Amino acid sequence: MIGDAVNVAARVQAHTREIGAVVLLTEATLSAMNMRDSGVYAKGEAELRGIAEPVRLYSTSTALDERSTLRRKSLITDA
Hints:
3 helices, 79 residues, 20% strand, 3-stranded antiparallel beta sheet, single chain
């Protein structure tokens, strides 16, 4: 049986593609890592399929995020 944490992780990973984020953290992960003031940005709550309560999500600002955004813009303008 797959635990709730694994189910949430899979849904959060899928959500990264939906919103174009490279990394998303749940509030529980953020709290466990003591990263509250470390360049982490609130992304709001997301209703994830199969999860009863909305999950509060955070992202980090990374070079990967910037490259991903530039790539998406390039794909849109090249189309």
